[in-house]
């Protein structure tokens, strides 16, 4: 199994900057239908099960939901828009190099989003998370299957264009982006915390 990760830190005004996701997101309402489970609902809306549970503290037992019950679905539209831009820019760079585009894996993006939030909330900048371990251990704990994987992380960038440009100007990050073995990508963007913004790219082949 091949694994690779690279980090990029930018110093701005003598402090490290970070790009990221809003700590609180608005939610939409969904009425439970017959046969629904939170897992099925999470798949329907492409939102993590744990994110739905966190958005519904009124559920005393997440395994027991009933038709007609109202469930709150976290809205991630603005965050996903930024993440989508990073993916599009990454694929533009791959196209220039004659490589096939990476496909978005929403579950992998969910893991990358958790990684960016984890760095923001726990106050670290590294590939190894105090809570989740290495990127590859983290992917496995979220049931992401892969034959090879890589990770890029960055802090301090204020736009998708800037972060992709700086990754491309860094040999290690560029190598991940232009790795012809990878077929899927997930991007996580998190805003807030001590430094402001955090970015994570995760790559896999299956």
From TrEMBL:
<dbReference type="Pfam" id="PF01476">
    <property type="entry name" value="LysM"/>
</dbReference>
<keyword id="KW-0732">Signal</keyword>
<dbReference type="InterPro" id="IPR035940">
    <property type="entry name" value="CAP_sf"/>
</dbReference>
<feature type="signal peptide">
    <location>
        <begin position="1"/>
        <end position="26"/>
    </location>
</feature>
<feature type="domain" description="LysM">
    <location>
        <begin position="28"/>
        <end position="73"/>
    </location>
</feature>
<dbReference type="InterPro" id="IPR014044">
    <property type="entry name" value="CAP_dom"/>
</dbReference>
<dbReference type="Pfam" id="PF00188">
    <property type="entry name" value="CAP"/>
</dbReference>
<dbReference type="InterPro" id="IPR014248">
    <property type="entry name" value="Spore_coat_assembly_SafA"/>
</dbReference>
<dbReference type="InterPro" id="IPR036779">
    <property type="entry name" value="LysM_dom_sf"/>
</dbReference>
<dbReference type="InterPro" id="IPR018392">
    <property type="entry name" value="LysM"/>
</dbReference>
<dbReference type="InterPro" id="IPR014258">
    <property type="entry name" value="CAP_domain_YkwD-like"/>
</dbReference>
<protein>
    <submittedName>
        <fullName>Spore coat assembly protein SafA/uncharacterized protein, YkwD family</fullName>
    </submittedName>
</protein>
